[in-house]
Amino acid sequence: MLEDLVEDVRRALDGGPAVAPLARLDADAPLPAGTALVVRTSGSTGSPREVALSADALRASATATHERLGGPGRWVLALPPTHVAGLQVIVRSLLAGAPPVSAGPGTPFAPDAFADMLGPVVAGADPVYTSLVPTQLHRLVAAAADGAPRGLEALARCAAVLLGGAATPAPLLERARAAGVRVVRTYGMSETAGGCVYDGVPLRGVRARLEPGTDVVELTGPTLAAGYVGDPAATAAAFRTDAGGPDAGTRWFRTSDLGAWGADGRLRVLGRADDVVVTGGVNVAPAAVEAVLARVLPDVLGPAATGEACVVGVPDDEWGQAVVAVAVGTDGTGRPTAVGQDELARVRGAVAATLGAPSAPRRVYRVAALPLRGPGKVDRARVAAMVRSHEAPTAP
Fold it and tell me: For 30-62, what is each residue's pLDDT tens digit?
């Protein structure tokens, strides 16, 4: 029951026993001193790990979030309370002095049901906040376009909507903001107690830097986890303390993401370092290609295309890896279906004009949905495996 989890988290924040919302991977592994929450990662870099978060880190994150948003308020829980984003909604609610509003664990997200849950809350005097992943926002925007706007209208009455867990296509963001939704894009992970960079600007006490030579994002601040439970080698590899220089003695978390500083001084996350596709000796960042596809796919493939796509590299005799895009469309099926040559040429031309010819997908497939791991995160490994299986030669 959600009420039981909320009470367990309350006790953990006050120094009580640590809470693990999912069954422990190794119940015998000792927890670092001061652990309040044990959160499982999504396993994007391999097998899932358990992250130990202290009460101080959780409080620092929730307090900094409220400061950035303009003060505490009522929180609506629309994410699984087993992941860090959902757990942070619980923590923020406890610090704000009001329990989270929720439809209950396991309740499927649906626009009308979300409107029913959100409506009475936004009718009150307190500011209302919620946290979503892009897939949920897309469903609300799509429902409004189909004549069912209640969910999006209710969302627009929130004081802020934290959006994270995956990259957000620019057209989706534009449509949501045009509808009056106050979207705040967040970046973070379990190891940083959830989102710690909002709209490219770190929360109070948090700092970001780019590792020289690699441009991998590194983060520091009071929200950092103690480490990985029962895995000192992984902890030592990911959490490092500067031995010298201007930040001597500062502990940093090395993410797996590439970043860049925008002209406005804000951090731009370019995607995972290990997602880079090397084709013909040129490095291609899938996230950059996906951003272009989000703009052009509805025009090229028609209204059935949502703009959501996943770009992967698949083995290729000539190029080493071929850039392949798998696009979501209401006319898609469970199996990849290749788009026509004319559509492919238009997609390739649009991507090449923006990012250069090496980034242009050599093949584009339609599917009904992309496989996910965790809330809102596309499983690139499964997408690549789906493409390889589809393109594998059949036995005679």
Answer: 999 999 999 998 765 557 899 999 999 999 999
The greatest distance separating any two alpha carbons of the chain, rounded to the nearest whole angstrom, comes to 69
Residue with tokens 């209302």: 128
Per-residue confidence at 353, pLDDT binned at 50, 70, 90?
A: very high
> For the residues 89-117, what does the mean pLDDT come to?
90
Residue 394, φ and ψ in degrees, nearest 5: -85, 150
List CB contacts of 297: < 8 A, sequence separation 6 or more. 305, 306, 307, 309, 327, 347
Q: How far apart are CA 357 and CA 184, in angstroms?
A: 33
Structure-token pair, residue 124: 């009150």
Contacts of 39 by beta carbon, 8 Å cutoff, 6+ apart: 21, 50, 51, 53, 83, 84, 87, 190
Tokens for 295? 């703009």
Eight-class DSSP state of 275: G
pLDDT in tens, 109-153: 899 999 999 999 999 999 999 999 888 998 899 899 999 999 999
| Cα separation, 185 vs 182, whole angstroms | 10
Please answer whether residues 130 and 75 qualify as being in contact, where contact means their C-beta atoms are separated by less than 8 angstroms.
yes
List the domains of the chain with CATH numbers: 1-273 (3.40.50.12780), 276-391 (3.30.300.30)
What does the pLDDT read at residue 265? 96
